[in-house]
Give the backbone structure.
Amino acid sequence: MTALNSLWLPVPTDLTLLPDDIHVWRINLDVPEPQLQNLVATLSSDELTRAHRFHFQEHRQRFIAGRGILRNILGSYLAIEPRQVRFDYENRGKPVLAENLSHSGLSFNLSHSQGLALCAVNYHRQIGIDLEYIRPVSDLKALAKRFFLPGEYDMVRSLSANQQQKVFFRYWTCKEAYLKATGEGLAQLEQIEVLLNPTEPAKLQTSQDWSLFELAPADNYVAAVAVAGFGWHLQCWQY
């Protein structure tokens, strides 16, 4: 399934997440200074420490915006204040709701690239999302040969230069969305099989028990969501 730009809708006043819903939020990370200061006030001490480790101010501000807005989004589902949202971290650093909030069954994943982020949310299922800005990659074919399966590499190599970039990043986001959902690392990237071509939506071949949704969040961006199970209703919101 592919979600087009026109499907990014304003958030309704009666926002409801049903058991078979997937909500994906599009987030602009370049926010005005007053909003940024409000978001800073919601962060935990460890998040503030992480923010101050960024060398460039732009990267620091985008991290603050991403984590602060994530807290706002999750707080709205949990009916608590953003500063009350607490996280634990899995072995590879993936954030999950802390134990005192895990009874809600809320699952989420966040990805960001340049000034844009996407947050995927559902109930009780593993979920992963990846977002990439389409940019020139000097060693694109070498990376495709290293991380993609032979048939995927052949697909990339057979395309024109312009098509190669987009298809490369489509493969990458589909694979990484699945690996983020399962908690596995990028070392497994070459083991994830994805079937796609320039005109058809991608299909995850590695596992028959997962749904894969491709997204078009903005010009020159591609993204994908992987979620365990089938029968999902995908809704895309503009934060």
Observations:
- The longest strand covers residues 21-28.
- The chain is about 30% helix and 30% strand.
- The CA atoms of residues 39 and 68 lie 5 Å apart.
